[in-house]
Amino acid sequence: MKSPLVSVIIPTRNRQEYAEKTIRQIAELNQNIEIVVQDNSDDDYLKELLNDLLSNENIKYSYCETPLPFSENYNRAMERVTGDYVCAIGDDDGILPNISECAIWMKENEIDVIKPAKDQVYFYPGNINKKKNACIGFGQYKGAYYYSNPETAVISLLDDGGCNYLEKDLAGSYHGLVKRDSMNKVKQITGKFYSGLTPDMYSVICLSLLPNIRLAVVDYPITLPGVCPTSGSAASDSGKHVGNIKDAPHLKQLPDYMWNSSVPRYYSVETIWAETMLYAIKKMGRDDLIDKYFNSNRLAQYLYQNNKPQREEILKIFTKETSEYVLKCCGENSIEGTNKTIQLLENIAIKLSGKRKIVRNISDINQAVDVLYSELATNMKNVPWRLIHLKGRIQQ
């Protein structure tokens, strides 16, 4: 059997019904894609659900009963990767059939990592919008691409207090596609593929700061992010990702973690992102960037703006000077922050005008991928790589 071109890593914990559907969706593409599943659930029921698939050499399942930090679950998956290119996804996400075509295009053009379009989303039944019928939302993709220096995006992120990272031209393995060699370079420098409090941010920073990394930003999707009722995005939108730092699940398995003094000791999307950003930059040996560009006031502003119910509580953790700055910025003419992941996703699903399209009554991730891919193949064919119209078949 030839080695896989693409490896998809899927770290999972206690979401067996969603993980099974995601794994089957990828397996049913019938491509030479390696699926690496790292299961950290309370039991190995997922293995039982996947029993009929585990004879497939391209599906690697591993179970660890001991609760692991988020990043360590990713590390253990990445350790078993053998493909030339790597894509990390959540256990409620999907992979589009064009991912292998994209990897071939990357290889032919000596591209280390791509940042594909990520504004498409599938909301599962019973999702955070409390609607009975699930839906998929996506935009119009032109297939245009350009090369970008991701270190300049890291500088922009620092100036933004570590917020709005999805809007920056950063490299990353989470819903991106990365050469395994680049992932190995990160490990050589920092000691791990993933670390810190949130693996996606760690990966974004470390890959973006690799010397001479070649990043292509592509206006075309290769994955389909999902939002199930128990996803992190859903929890963020419902206010469960805000509060006392002791309540942060990211820290439960890291009792000795040293929180950066430049980041408010408060549990929120904003602070977790900023903390991991600074941690990763230090691991890459680029403290010079922090000293020169990190804007802690901007972080405080976003923290206050984006967590309206907790504003009174948040002000108490700021110094007098920071509070005065934040309140001044949040006057009538201030621009509300938009850095919550779920806010970005929800805007896609509820915006019914313009270039957005919503398709409702989508039963599962497999059907959602079919709907999106059919739309791409029919109406949005202008892509850097050759788009194949037969689902799951890559012409040799």
How would you describe this structure to a colleague?
The protein has 15 helices and 14 strands. By secondary structure, it is α/β, with parallel strands linked by helices. Helix 7 (199-208) crosses helix 9 and helix 11 (296-306) crosses helix 13 (320-329). It is globular and about 60 Å long. The chain starts with 5 loop residues before the first strand and ends in a 17-residue tail after the last helix.
Question: Care to count the β-strands?
Answer: 14
Quaternary state, please? Answer: single chain
Rg over C-alpha atoms, rounded to the nearest angstrom = 20 Å
| Mean of all residue-level pLDDT scores | 88
Q: What is the percentage of strand-forming residues?
A: 5-15%
Number of helices: 15
Kindly state the percentage of residues in helix: 25-40%
| Dominant shape | globular
Annotation keywords:
single chain; 396 residues; alpha/beta; eight-stranded mixed beta sheet; four-stranded mixed beta sheet; 15 helices; 37% helix
Please specify the SSE layout and strand pairing:
Layout lengths: L5 E7 L3 H12 L5 E7 L5 H5 L9 E5 L6 H9 L6 E4 L5 E2 L3 H10 L4 E3 L5 E3 L11 E4 L6 E4 L1 H10 L17 E3 H11 L8 H10 L6 E4 L4 E2 L1 E2 L4 H6 L31 H15 L3 H7 L2 H11 L4 H5 L4 H10 L11 H10 L6 E4 L4 H15 L17
Parallel strand pairs: 1-2, 1-4, 2-3, 6-11, 7-13
Antiparallel strand pairs: 4-10, 5-12, 6-10, 7-8, 8-14, 9-11
Helix pairs in contact: 7-9, 11-13
